[in-house]
Amino acid sequence: MKKSLFLIATFALALAGCDKGATDNTDDGNKPPVTPTLTEGVTAEAYYAGAFDENADLGSYWINFYPDDNEMDDFGELLNESGYIFCISFSAPVAENPDLAVLPDGTYTGSEEISDMTFRINDENESYVIRLVDGSTVQTAVTGGTVNLTVTDGIYQIECDLTLEGDEAYTYSYTGEVVFHNRSAEGMYTTLKDDVSITGLSQGYVELFGESMFEDADSEMARIVLGDDNFDILTLLGKGHGVVIDFNIPIGSESIPDGQYEILPSDATSIPAGTLVPGMIYYSMFYGCWYFSGQNEAALCDGTVEISHSGSEYQLSFSLKDGYGHTVTGSYNGELYE
Known about the structure:
Blueprint: E1 42-51, E2 58-67, E3 84-93, E4 106-111, E5 118-120, E6 128-133, E7 136-152, E8 155-164, E9 168-177, E10 179-182, E11 196-197, E12 203-208, E13 220-227, E14 231-232, E15 237-238, E16 242-249, E17 259-263, E18 275-276, E19 280-282, E20 285-287, E21 289-293, E22 296-300, E23 302-310, E24 313-321, E25 327-335
Parallel strand pairs: 1-10, 4-5, 11-25, 17-18
Antiparallel strand pairs: 1-2, 2-3, 3-5, 3-6, 4-7, 6-7, 7-8, 8-9, 12-13, 13-16, 14-15, 16-18, 16-21, 17-23, 19-20, 21-22, 23-24, 24-25
């Protein structure tokens, strides 16, 4: 699956304005709205990487499509005949807000150059299909064709009529939600549009890193990951709810000390113990405080966590916010494994 682009990690999270732009859903005349039939059993995992270096007016977008029953081993090899990954990379105008990126309607044509309303071809790391062929996982580059795309009230209708390497015809259709995750170097790295109150957190683990990711920090880092029954706390994936909380604790600590921890401000110049790390992405890895649920994610950059524990039994309550002020609240009472 296509990897997220490298993001320059700074302790300060860039601020961005938020204009949700409420949509007028009044239908034209007396015609009832037409509800499209949504594609079932397929995930559309989408990313926005910001402007190209070669053309600052155009942004890089890509979507990975794959069935929910995909089976893959630890080396990325497909295990089931019905499994696949279809990735297509688009060039389109840069998003006004990288946290609310949307691909424009229209017909996109294959191009080896970075130009408006195109998808990138002849590079198996840009647009490609991964399938199981004669028992082996094979990745095949897209070499041409068209993609017709329309967006209505957040629902994408995508029709692909493509040619693959070896002159193979390939068609693909998808109708459903597409949420672009911000992988640019700007914005607040959140897809939330409302507050979230989490209930049913039922599992988690605690990890002491023994060091800090920040040079000359006056603390070490520790992490707690929590999730409900429908969230994988190791991969940070699932339809349920999950939270990652990175603590700054005293150097040499054998556990996370009890107390209240507050997320450090983005302009902090020191990393003292007794604080939390704001959400950030570093070398394509998530650090700090994050919320995950399905296709939604949010870097959390304000708020507090209360923690107490006896042995492996922990009690936590948290009230955290993303960069637009959407709150993520919840609590956990139970065992955390190490």
